[in-house]
Amino acid sequence: MSLPKKMKDHAAKHAEATVPHPEAARKQAAQGKLLARERVTAILDRDSFHEYDLFVEHKCSDFGMAKKQLPGDGVITGTGTILGHPVAIFAQDFTVAGGSLGLAHARKITKIMDHAIKLGIPLIGINDSGGARIQEGVNSLAGYGEIFYRNTLASGVIPQISIILGPCAGGAVYSPALTDFVFVVDNISKMFITGPEVIKTVLGEEISMEDLGGARVQAEMTGNAHFYAQSEAECFEQVKRLVTYIPWNNRKKADAFSVIPSRSEVSLESIIPAESNKPYDVRDVIKAVCDGSDFMEVQALWAANIVVGFARMDGRTVGMIANQPAVLAGVLDVDSSDKAARFIRFCDAFNIPLVTFVDLPGYLPGIDQEHAGVIRHGAKLLYAYSEATVPKITVILRKAYGGGYIAMCSRHLGADFVFAWPCAEIAVMGPEGAANIIFKGEIAAAADPEAFRKEKVKEYTEKFASPYVAAANGHVDAVIAPHQTRDFLLHALEISEEKQELRPQRKHGVPPF
Ligand code: HXC
Q: pLDDT digits over 167-216, tens only?
């Protein structure tokens, strides 16, 4: 065959493998879902997608599979760029056998994962799959296992992003759970280990797929998802934005962005109420100090009593962690400890400095919390901050009481710089509680117990509920006016650029789980 004929033959083969089955495509569109190929091109820079393994075929002959041709074996794999950043990508194609995962399908994914690890580029997975391909039996389970193994090898080496754009059951949810960020879309994403049918059969409980594992449930109740969007288009914009904040791999730093739009006009002095128990939105503080008030919040809907996310300071990415006084007074609890700890470990693995804003009354008391294991969950936060060797800068805004003071990146957990605003209150507990305990006997014996109690609360407030005792002991490096915060942070970040902190050799730590 001449080359022109071979090229014609190739074009026909290519079309056969890439043109979607009309009925399956219609069904996908009716559900408001894009096709796998459309998704890949929507995320990547125009014309940057380079596809591999298009002609891979399955080798299964059971249950009528010998006669079944599955284009690309139900998954598209390749490399491309997002805003110029290289990425490896795979997208499961629900129009081909429900995107189900057979061995060839899995091996296409593991091959692109191996590339991503070797090349040191982020991996993006678009998941839209009925799970293990039933006809392939144990081979499809083997395929999942090989993916989980690589997810784990890649953890902390390259960023891994999962986008859930369809049903993801069983094995299909464990790979995303092993990755760094999970994106979900309203009405489209569903994640569960066992679906409604199994739950009904085994337990007699009835629940819809949406109520069991829909996007909102995963973003708000379980914390399995990190980003929630109303549409696929919005989700892809979120993915692109995230990629600009993170480095290609753990040997690099995230690219700096030299164009810095104007900052928030809100004055920091006006954000915090005069009364120390009044709430405010700590995101206003973050937006007032970072470049262009541009803050990308992670897990915004879950455990909202702590705020975590990415921002830039003089163009460089920083990870922001802040207690949120507007939700549960910003207390630490099981979920907020988990949320912050995971975020800190991501930032540390990928050379992103940490800036922590502190304003919390402590850990949430309660039987539920104790029985939910707040001890081991809270310990994750202590571990994550202590383990992190990236620059760590802490700003105590207002309350920093007891265990909360220590846990929120105090000097004692290795903070490089600790600053405090003049309204900071650093003490074992709030003045009311402290006075009630210390002077219990005297209050009871006083002629006017309430007047005596108030006097002691005032005395305690003046003596301890300030930043100056901590500053006098060197636990706080500088007491700064709120409007000096950005300047102090920028300087601290700049001089920490080459920070090195060596640790004793070990295979790996054993963090609380
Ligand atoms: C083979 C599958 C499949 C699967 C779907 N299909 N799931 N083929 N193996 N797991 C096929 C269907 O037969 C159908 O083929 C096509 O994909 C579209 O599926 P529909 O059912 O028509 O689509 P829909 O009504 O939208 O329902 C989607 C669905 C449902 C909810 C995902 O298909 C479903 O429940 N599938 C099974 C899910 C599951 O139990 N998977 C195993 C999980 S266990 P045709 O030819 O008719 O178009 C697991 C083990 C791993 O993953 C554990 C590792 C730790």
A: 998 888 999 999 999 999 999 999 998 889 989 999 999 999 999 999 99
CA of 134 to the centre of ligand 1 (A): 8
Residue written as token pair 């991501």: 346
> Could you tell me if 165 and 186 are in contact, meaning their C-beta atoms sit under 8 angstroms apart?
no
Q: In this structure, what token pair is assigned to residue 390?
A: 């990236």
Give CA–CA dist 19/480, Å, rounded: 63
| Pocket, ligand 1, Cβ cutoff 6 A | 97-98, 100, 130-134, 141, 144, 167, 169-172, 174
- Write the CATH number of the domain with boundaries 3-245: 3.90.226.10
User: Mind listing the pLDDT tens digit for each residue in 96-111?
Assistant: 989 999 999 999 999 9
CB atoms within 10 A of CB 162: 27
Q: Cα–Cα distance between 285 and 296 in angstroms, integer?
A: 14
Q: Residue whose CA is closest, atom 53 of ligand 1?
A: 171
ipTM for the predicted complex: 0.96
Contacts of 433 (CB under 8 A, 6+ apart): none
Q: Which CATH architecture has domain 268-428+465-495?
A: Alpha-Beta Complex (3.90)
**For residue 26, what are the contacts with CB-CB under 8 A and spacing of at least 6?**
none
Is residue 264 scored above 70 in pLDDT? no
Instruction: Provide φ and ψ at 506, rounded to 5°.
Output: -160, 160
